[in-house]
Design a protein that fits this description.
Elements (H helix, E strand, L loop, with lengths): L1 H21 L5 H17 L5 E3 L2 E4 L2 E4 L7 H13 L4 H31 L5 H27 L5 H11 L8
Antiparallel strand pairs: 1-2, 2-3
Helix pairs in contact: 1-3, 2-4, 3-4, 3-5, 4-5
């Protein structure tokens, strides 16, 4: 029953997520911020580039840091997973203070690596973009959330039920 309550709460938190996609809500300043951070990292690695607004220019190649590239979906999904987990809010807050900046950093690393490997190593852009987004970021979020669940597995019994459902069996904890 608690697992289903978790799923219901998670879906309630995802309603604003779906609405923001439907109505194309964007924070332009986040795109600009990330473009400037990636520009700075590229220049640190001796990749001559320039930046204007949310566009990075390298020679005659232009990279746009789009709304989807900002990682907002990853941040929101992680936030929703942690908030929906049946633990005391203080424990969730501590983890979010660490986890959200880490996901932001991983996304910056993803954008940087995609551009760097394309420009410097000549790797295929679409492969890099899809691989680093779909697999690297998705797996990173799930690993972080599983670590969160694992760390708090004995704090409250409900977490054991979620872990058990995810692993296909109920885990017993020591009293």
């Amino acid at each position: 029953m608690i697992f289903f309550e978790f799923l219901i709460l998670l879906n309630i938190f995802l309603i604003p997520f779906y609405l923001s996609i439907k109505f194309d809500v964007q924070i332009h300043q986040l795109k600009v911020l990330e473009a400037h951070i990636v520009y700075y990292l590229l220049n640190l690695t001796k990749v001559e580039s320039s930046v204007r607004d949310n566009f990075i220019y390298i020679g005659d190649v232009i990279f746009e840091v789009s709304w989807d590239s900002t990682g907002w979906k990853s941040l929101y999904l992680f936030l929703s997973l942690v908030i929906s987990t049946p633990l005391f809010f203080r424990k969730k807050l501590k983890f979010l203070v660490l986890g959200l900046p880490l996901i932001f950093f991983l996304n910056i690393l993803r954008i940087f690596a995609t551009i760097y490997f394309f420009i410097v190593l000549g790797m295929q852009y679409e492969f890099l973009h899809q691989f680093l987004w779909r697999y690297f970021m998705s797996i990173s979020i799930l690993i972080m959330w599983f670590l969160f669940l694992y760390k708090h597995r004995y704090n409250i019994g409900e977490t054991n039920i979620i872990i058990g459902c995810l692993y296909g069996r109920r885990r017993k904890h020591k009293d």
